[in-house]
Amino acid sequence: MLRQLRALLQITHTQLIARRYFIVNGFDGALTMQGLIVGFEVSAPVDLSVVITACVGAAVALGVSGMTSAWLSEAAEKQNELRALERAMVADLGASAYGRAAHVLPVVIALVNGAAPLMISLLIITPLWLGQAGMTLLLPPLPAALVTALALIFLLGIYLGRISGTFWLWSGIRTLLIAVATAALILLIR
User: pTM, whole model, 2 decimals?
Assistant: First the structure.
């Protein structure tokens, strides 16, 4: 089954789309969590459980939104491509590999699109859970979560640098600068 899925990905070049969705929505998840954490850090003190609940709520919403929006749009696009190819070939391709890909790959893309912001968000808020559990951290929970967000954003930048063949450090710094600018904007409008 995995071999067949890999073949379908290669036939349609969907792995490139999935990789883009992972990066784009992973970045969205990281910046959203960073925004929430910065907002909570500079607002009146609230209980850590409130921060965690808000962050988990946002993470789940990002995951569901990413999954459903990708599934809806990719399913429509793949069906459109399949119908166009069927018209050009004057044949029903529903049982072909391309036909199977038109039905299976939107689900794969949806899972990637939803999982990326959810997983990255959950990683970012891990210090909050650890702090709530009473574990001793090097930093208080909110700053530790912020450092985690910045680190993951930097790693996404490094990954982008590797994909594009550019200098990994510059690419990581560029995404980090976007994160810092986002935090500065939040601080300016509060």
Answer: 0.88
